[in-house]
UniProtKB/TrEMBL annotation:
Keywords, in A-Z order: Membrane, Transmembrane, Transmembrane helix
Protein name: Zinc ribbon domain-containing protein
Transmembrane segments: 85-107, 140-158, 170-193, 199-220, 232-251
Keyword Transmembrane helix attached: yes
UniProt keyword Membrane, yes or no: yes
Amino acid sequence: MICSNCSHKNDGGRFCENCGSPLTQGGGQEAAVAMENASASPTTSGQSNKYIESTKNISKMYFGYFMQVIKKPYASAQAVGAEHFINGLITIVLYSFIIPLMFYFALKGILADMNSFSSGLFGEELQINPPFADVVIKPAFAYAIFIMLVAVFSFAAIKLGRINASFQEVVARFGSFLIPFVALLAIALIMSILKIKLFLLFLFLGFVGSIFMVPPLVIASYKKSSEEGVDVIYGSLITYILTFVAIAIMGDMLFNTLKDAFSDIFGLFGGL
């Protein structure tokens, strides 16, 4: 039993062995609960602060890494190893979310204009907003799977070239070469928010570049000093073929959610 006066732990009895205060069952339980809460609270708080600090450090490190690759993309990316695997995954996640976010804001701008038009035509605003889950979340998972498949295809081509490279290393380097195209997509995202129609050009350059330029650059960065195995050109062709097969199979996942969102929204106008 714990003394409510001095918090001394007693084996039993009616009085505290340390200070002599009367011991009560309720007081002991309250003191025990207080001590448990006092001991648990700093631990929980410390864990939360640890996670926050860790997230901040990762963000700072990734930003520095991102800016370094932007300054000298090829020189920086070809020197990347497995130690940047997490950075490669972060880049892939950014790539996966930027594209659907772009469509979301572009669609939101179109619907805002339609809402204004309906207000002038019918005397009231419809207040139609694009469904965030259907336009952003679901396609983001599809784009993440797709771009990871392209990285896997690049890894397979490198292995066919008889290069001793780990999957983590290839993904890290793939993510580094992907950064300039993520930057183009980020510019397109900002333009879509500002309703600048030129965002479609940057979207095209970022998306097509990520498919047609990144794989051969990754393969060439490993094959530049080796003549064994599959040549860079044939490895790139194999990667392109597999990528187009993936697009054909995943076309519904990549684009149908967007088409469904458009059809649901415009169906509301059709019912007016």
